[in-house]
Design a protein that fits this description.
Blueprint lengths: L1 E2 L4 E3 L5 E9 L5 E8 L2 H18 L10 H12 L5 H19 L9 H13 L4 H17 L23 H13 L3 H12 L3 H5 L6 E2 L4 E4 L2 E6 L8 E6 L8 E4 L2 H8 L1
Antiparallel strand pairs: 1-2, 2-3, 3-4, 5-6, 6-9, 7-8
Helix pairs in contact: 1-2, 2-3, 2-5, 3-5, 6-7
Amino acid sequence: MSRTGENIYRRKDGRWEARYIAERRADGRAIYKSFYARTYAEAKRKQTEVTARQLLALPPEKPSEILLETFAANWLAAVRLRVKASTYGKYERIVRLHVMAVIGNQRVAALSQGDVERFAQGLMDGGLSAKSVQDILIVMKGILKYGKIPIDCSAISVRSEQREMRVLSKPEQDALALYLTQNADAITLGVLLSLYTGIRIGELCALRWENIDLVAQTLRITGTMQRIPDFTDGAAKTQVVITSPKSKCSVRTIPLPEFLVKLLHQ
């Protein structure tokens, strides 16, 4: 088993092997060396540390030897210390699947505004949504800023199609609410809560009884549930976590309709 794009593999003896570029031949081809560790996390740490040391050791008069993947790996290691685990998981996936896989072997000295624009256009042509491409460009902007590379990702416009949102009509909402109340269980109650409060699916899944005040007839949103990548061990692929909401504005108190309070009493 391997981690795609990371050069980290699970060996038959159970150990993890992390490869890194030790040097390059005259023709530019990479010469790899390896670290071995008992866990994926340890192998990844060793790989990140040696990549960081290589970056710091590069003489400033030879920037042409630096690849974009080097800055990307070190930016990830730096940003991990100051973002939530869910945010880091999103960044890691973007770097691994898009930045390193598509443009990571580009030499920084030769990287141009046009290269990044073509990178973005290729993502669009490959079927990604405008929102996904914008998210990738935000990560790319962070990497370029970290590496002090003078390319302005904010100048790259991604055209998006405005789609009309389909919402339930009043008769449709009434019919749905009637069915849900007549077939009340944990799932239908969750749908009703979302319908009448507007909370997100992650906020719904993170609810606890202490978030509900039946006397005041209110609902307090203090967290959100997410499934994120698990970087602690190679054996587990994901983990479910409850974290703080996306923003401070997401922490809020919502009034509950009286009929929902009665259902919650049951």
